[in-house]
Each structure stands twice: as C-alpha cells, then as structure tokens.
Amino acid sequence: MNTKPTIAIGCDDAAVDMKDQLKNHLASQGYEVTDFGVQAGESALYPDVAHVLATSVKEQKQQFGILCCGTGIGMAMTANKVQGIRAAQAHDNYSAERARKSNDAQIVTLGARVIGIELAKSIVDSFLASDFDSQRSGDKVERIRHYESLEISKA
C-alpha cells in the first residue's frame, strides 16, 4: 500500500523536459503522479494549466501539486487565484521547505529557465519531505484564509 501523497504535475511548453524528468523522479520514489502538463511539441497557456491543476488539488484529487513554466512566477500567480490554494515559487530548498512548514503550501512552482533539473529535483524532495508546523504558523495561515474570504465576499 502506497502511503506517499499523490502528486499533480503540470507545465507549459517552456518546461516539458523539466516536468517529464520530475515526473520520472517522483515515480521512481513510489509517488502516484497525475500529469496535467503539455507533451513535447504541444503548446498551452500556462494560466490554463495552473488553473486546472490547482482546482484538482483544491478538490483533493491530489494532495500536492508541482507546476513548471519558464520562471515559475506566472504559474504561482494563477494557482493562487484558486480559492484555498497556496502556491509558492521556489528556487532553493529552504524556500520549498518554508513554503510547506510556514505557509502550508500545497503547490510548488519552478522555472525551467532559471534552475537546473538536479536542483529542481532537490527542491521538490524538500517540499514533499516537509510538514506544516501548525503550532508555530497555524494562526498565520488562518489569517491568510481570513483575507481570502474577505476578497471572495466582495466579488
């Protein structure tokens, strides 16, 4: 029985190779990975990929998500538009760890044009190995939810 979390992974055409290598890396560790990304030779707007993946994570079809594009910036911005999602761009292991421990992020975003694949694998490993520290950061994440609900009620 697999006790590892389920993972959603997605990319636009700028990060197909990174997505494929991360997918293989995770599968080799026994993770169940669902691919929301484009394949080689295909094209997609990164907001479309990010929204579909973030919605799937929100609906708890997968526990965590990984989004890859050229920089990771646009993917994070779009994923964070989905109510209840906290996506964090990470360029190093510490940021990935803190995204989970301090912010209870469910999605990490990576830039294929700004980090190499071995660092990307290490960042993903750090992200998935970290657990949310609700004792130290629960009130902060609750405040994020509070502000999110205020924005939703304005809509």
Q: What's the SSE blueprint?
A:
Blueprint: E1 7-11, H1 16-28, E2 33-35, H2 46-58, E3 64-69, H3 73-79, E4 87-89, H4 93-101, E5 107-111, H5 117-129, H6 134-154
Parallel strand pairs: 1-2, 1-3, 3-5, 4-5
Helix pairs in contact: 1-5, 2-3, 4-5
Number of helices: 6
Q: N- to C-terminal separation?
A: 43 Å
- Average pLDDT works out at 95
Low-confidence runs of at least 5 consecutive residues: none
**What's the alpha carbon Rg, rounded to whole Å?**
15 Å
Strand order of the largest sheet: 2-1-3-5-4
Oligomer: single chain
Alpha-beta content class? alpha/beta
- How much strand content do the residues show? 5-15%
Give the total of beta strands: 5
What is the approximate shape? Answer: globular
User: Could you state the order of secondary-structure elements as H and E?
Assistant: EHEHEHEHEHH
Main β sheet profile: 5 strands, parallel
- Helicity, as a percent range: 40-55%
